[in-house]
Amino acid sequence: MAGTTAYNLQIVTPEGHAFVGEVRSVVLPGADGSFGILATHAPLLSALQVGTLEMEDASGNRETWAIGEGFVEVVAEGTKVLTDFTNKAGEVDVPRAEAARERAQQLLDQSLETTDRARAEAAMRRAMLRLRLSGKTS
């Protein structure tokens, strides 16, 4: 993608800005499938699902991030990703992700009326994504 124009990308979580910088491209996990954004993208507002965000920075370096549910907004000034969590590849707390997966599995194995199945399934998706991103799928 040599020569591709860079644009501003912000990844924002409830804890604050996880990333702010110039990128050439970003691929996001949309609610209806993955899609890419370049500097010349038309204005857009879209829902995001749990998945991976892949970006190429202005220098051509590629990074992969785990992101949660949220939204992306594309405007002339740049792209803003609002998500409930994010982890950069290589920075995943593997023991914590494995513990979260085990807790979610225990909840899913129960057939109690008090189990919030949708919440347990969402926790399982987040944990499995983090483990996949870290290379640990056990």
Explain what the structure shows:
The chain has 138 residues and is of the alpha+beta class. It has two domains: 7-88, ATP Synthase, domain 1, CATH 2.60.15; 94-133, Single alpha-helices involved in coiled-coils or other helix-helix interfaces. The protein has two helices and nine strands. Strands 1, 2, 3, 4, 5, 6, 7, 8 and 9 form a nine-stranded mixed β-sheet that branches. Strand 7 and strand 8 form a beta hairpin. Helix 1 (94-109) runs antiparallel to helix 2. The longest helix has 18 residues, at 117-134. The protein starts with 6 loop residues before the first strand and ends with a helix. The mean pLDDT is 86.
Quick summary:
The chain is of the alpha+beta class.
